[in-house]
Amino acid sequence: MIFALVIFMLAGAVARAEEVVVTLPTRAGVTETFTFDTPARPLAAVILFPGGRGAIGIGGRGGHPVIARADTFLIRSRPRFAASGFAVVALDAPSDHADGLSEAFRKGASHSRDIATVVAWLRQKVAAPVWLVGTSMGSVSAASNAIRLGRAIDGVVLSSPVSASGRNAPELGVTTLDLQDITVPTLVMDHARDACRSSPPANAALIAKRLTRSPRIMVTLIEGGGPPRSGPCRALSYHGYFGVEDRAVAAIVGFITARQPTGRQPTAGR
Question: What are 88-136's pLDDT values in tens digits?
């Protein structure tokens, strides 16, 4: 039986539920913590996988959710997704990996069990399609779970996907996954000026070519924003859509809510 411990609340906008922090038991002795926010009638639900080590430090202070490391693109953009009519889950690392997720863990069965539990909980809360959305190293989690969970989810977004070796990706990110086994609509998005060596934007099209069983595919390259205020692989750079968060979120929202024929879609978002 899935149950949740709701710990903290934050007053939301009109016609939206309050943002809450939820902790679910997932595996023996392990819990998964995330924030949850939803409008009354969500268009879709997104589970956000942050980049880096994936440990964002969700807690609370004075009855309000507090996220210690909220600068990553998806986490700082969660109000934009909620304002677009989406139910939003922002994931922390599970309790047995509180110091962060390795690339191997992101690709493994234990991580998938955690996410399957979150998906099942979310299905009980909202009557809307459920999408996995990952950025940077979070794209590895999103892609791996899209493969493992199959049609238990409705789509996946790979944002600034890690596809080359780097500090957090000794195993080459999404490129070692069986991407041909993703069977849901997939958006591959990067910034045209992404200078992170682990996520060259030219590789977005190469990733898309391997999605041979996805019924709808789009490659989107975002332009504009900056100048960077962090290193090229960190959140406040082109890699993290710094200065063009609205444009990047709009591209994701547009793909998720689109009702297009199946098949490969043209590159867009320039």
Answer: 999 999 999 999 999 999 999 999 999 999 999 999 999 999 999 999 9
> What is the predicted pLDDT for the residue at 63?
60
CA distance 12 to 80: 13
Write down how long the chain is.
270
- Bridge pairing between strands 216-222 and 263-264: parallel
Q: 159 near 124, Cβ under 8 Å?
A: no
Check if the beta carbon of residue 34 is closer than 8 Å to that of residue 71: no
Q: Using CA atoms, how far apart are residues 32 and 25, in angstroms rounded to an integer?
A: 6
Chain centroid to Cα 267, Å, comes to 21
Quote the CA–CA distance of 170 and 158 in Å, as a whole number: 19
pTM (two decimals) = 0.90
- 58-61 and 19-27: which strand pairing? unpaired
**In this predicted model, what pLDDT tens digit does every residue of 153-205 receive, in sequence order?**
999 999 999 998 766 666 789 999 999 999 999 999 999 999 999 999 999 99
Q: What is the DSSP letter of 39?
A: B
Which letter, b or e, does each residue of 80-119 get, where b requires 16 or more Cβ atoms within 10 Å of its Cβ?
A: bbbebbbbbbbbbbbbbbeeebbbebbbeeebbebbbbbb
Query: Which domains does the chain carry?
Result: 5-264 (3.40.50.1820)
